[in-house]
Amino acid sequence: MDDLAERVAAGDRRALARAVTLVESTRPDHQEQALALLDQLRGLNRQALRIGLSGTPGVGKSTFIEAFGMMLVDAGLRVAVLAVDPSSARSGGSILGDKTRMDRLSREKGAFIRPSPSSAALGGVARRTREAVSLCEAAGFDVVLIETVGVGQSETMAAQMCDLFVLLLAPGGGDDLQGVKRGIMEMADIILVNKADGDLKATATRTVADYASALMLLRKRPYDPDDFPKALAVSAVEGGGLDQAWAEMQSLAEWRKFEGHWDRTRAAQAAHWFDQEVREGLLARLSQDANIKAHMRDSADAVARGEVTATAAARAILRRLT
After folding, report:
1. Closest listed residue to residue 112, CA positions, set 91, 124, 98
2. What is the pLDDT of residues 50-61, one digit of tens each?
3. Is the distance from CB of 20 to CB of 113 less than 8 angstroms?
4. 145, 183, 221, 236: which has the highest count of C-beta atoms within 10 A?
5. Least trusted range by pLDDT, from 117-126, 188-197, 226-235
6. Distance between alpha carbon 106 and the CA centroid of its chain, in Å?
């Protein structure tokens, strides 16, 4: 672990990939090693700008991330991309094809791309995405882009590990978010309307105006300056608007740092993930303790036969935990 920690701290991308694999492993011995590694690297106290990115299917998230990432790399920044790929509910498998879709960025020395399966985790992120973010910061990356599975109410979990949350939308897609806007739009710091090029350019301009009006009516948060949140038009294919989007992200991040919101938000996020770890640990005990597992099977059979209610059976299991 000492050698791996030194190599990660030195920015070795192979070591970083191995470290991410370690923290994602479910083997008990690997989990202990991962804890030791994270503890060693914590003292470096390095911070990157964490940007969460979500969007509707087909909006061009991977295309945008590659174009945006290349712009940042060309500006001399080191960029890490943590892409969460949906796992099949039937087979449990994932395609993990983000490196293929980001061919140019994956070849850049100043970039690191890591696709991870969502597995059974909800919230648009993988089980150990937060630890992977910490590893990327320890490796000296300046910007960490977290691409979530897709758009939906549960995607807001990604906002609990980001400094900025960006929502990517398509031109003329106003109806796409009717069922989820209260969840996702309340979390978005910046809305980017992609594909603002060619025949869709005028449509994108109208869509930006529509969302800008909606954001003004939706909410005003105490940790936003007066002109945020905002909507902008971008073209990942032509590169239009990317520099403005980056400037707005930097402006918002600097304002939050100056006002003290940055540190308070990160502290609140750390407390949130502590709570999540406790919950996950309790759930793990249900699947690891042989006596509890046997009692759960018996209780499930009793519930199925109608001998006891689901609520009463669940409370009996929880009493066994204590």
Report:
1. 98
2. 999 988 778 888
3. no
4. 145
5. 117-126
6. 19
Task: Report the 3 state secondary structure along the chain.
Answer: CHHHHHHHHCCCHHHHHHHHHHHHCCCHHHHHHHHHHHHHHHCCCCCCEEEEEEECCCCCHHHHHHHHHHHHHHCCCCEEEEEEECCCCCCCCCCCCHHHHCHHHHCCCCEEEEEEECCCCCCCCCCCHHHHHHHHHHCCCCEEEEECCCCCHHHHHHHHHCCEEEEEECCCCHHHHCCCHHHHCCCCCEEEECCCCHHHHHHHHHHHHHHHHHHHHHCCCCCCCCCCCEEEECCCCCCCCHHHHHHHHHHHHHHHHHHCHHHHHHHHHHHHHHHHHHHHHHHHHHHHCHHHHHHHHHHHHHHHCCCCCHHHHHHHHHHHHC
Give the model confidence (pLDDT) of 273-300 as tens digits.
888 888 888 877 777 778 888 888 899 9
Mind listing the pLDDT tens digit for each residue in 82-124? 988 654 434 443 344 455 678 899 899 999 999 876 544 444 4
Give percent above pLDDT 90 in the chain.
41
- Whether residue 222 is preceded by a cis peptide bond, meaning omega within 30 degrees of 0, is no
Tally of CB atoms within 10 A around 43:
10
CA 79 to chain centre: 15
Render pLDDT for 118-165 as a digit per residue (tens, 0 to 9): 544 444 445 688 899 999 999 999 999 998 866 554 556 777 889 999
Q: Count how many residues are written for the chain.
A: 322
Residue 62: name the closest of 2, 15, 106, 126 by CA: 106
- Name the pTM for this structure: 0.83
Q: What average pLDDT does the segment 161-190 reach?
A: 73
